[in-house]
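We were asked to recover a plausible sequence for a given structure. The inputs and outputs are reproduced exactly as logged, with field labels preserved.

PROBLEM: sequence recovery
POSITIONS: 157
GIVEN STRUCTURE:
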């Protein structure tokens, strides 16, 4: 079958493909009642996929007679060039990527905050020791003139 499709591709359309490429692109499935064969062809080029599917359909009667040795095959539909790619589904992959990125970012923030032992604002002192803080001694040497903030750090040294 593959050699017949390969020859017809070359003769009819001028497309020269390797037989392994054609063989890997074709999937023939049966329906639940076993009376209809569904030919699926997936390649990078939708036109080539339609060409191969139509050539498999044209050769299906002879292939069926060679394998089964009785009966015949009647074509139901011709293959048409698809308007959009069958895979990958970009919307689903984008959504999954966004959710995974959000989950990983939240996990990193949680781990970073739980590992950090610095006591920064005065509220952390109250939460840590349970006593109110009435005043702070500011380190004026650590004043950052660009951002207008001060650097506080707790040390047990």
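RECOVERED SEQUENCE:
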């Amino acid at each position: 079958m593959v050699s017949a499709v390969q020859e017809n591709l070359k003769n009819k359309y001028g497309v020269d493909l390797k037989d392994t490429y054609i063989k890997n692109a074709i999937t023939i499935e049966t329906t639940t009642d076993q009376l209809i064969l569904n030919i699926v062809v997936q390649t990078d080029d939708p036109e080539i996929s339609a060409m191969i599917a139509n050539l498999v359909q044209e050769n299906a009667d002879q292939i069926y007679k060679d394998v089964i040795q009785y009966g015949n095959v009647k074509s139901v539909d011709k293959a048409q060039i698809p308007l959009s790619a069958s895979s990958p589904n970009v919307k689903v992959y984008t959504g999954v990527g966004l959710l995974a990125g959000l989950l990983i970012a939240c996990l990193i923030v949680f781990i970073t905050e739980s590992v950090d032992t610095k006591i920064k604002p005065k509220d952390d002192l109250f939460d840590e020791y349970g006593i109110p803080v009435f005043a702070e001694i500011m380190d004026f040497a650590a004043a950052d003139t660009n951002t207008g903030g001060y650097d506080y750090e707790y040390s047990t040294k």
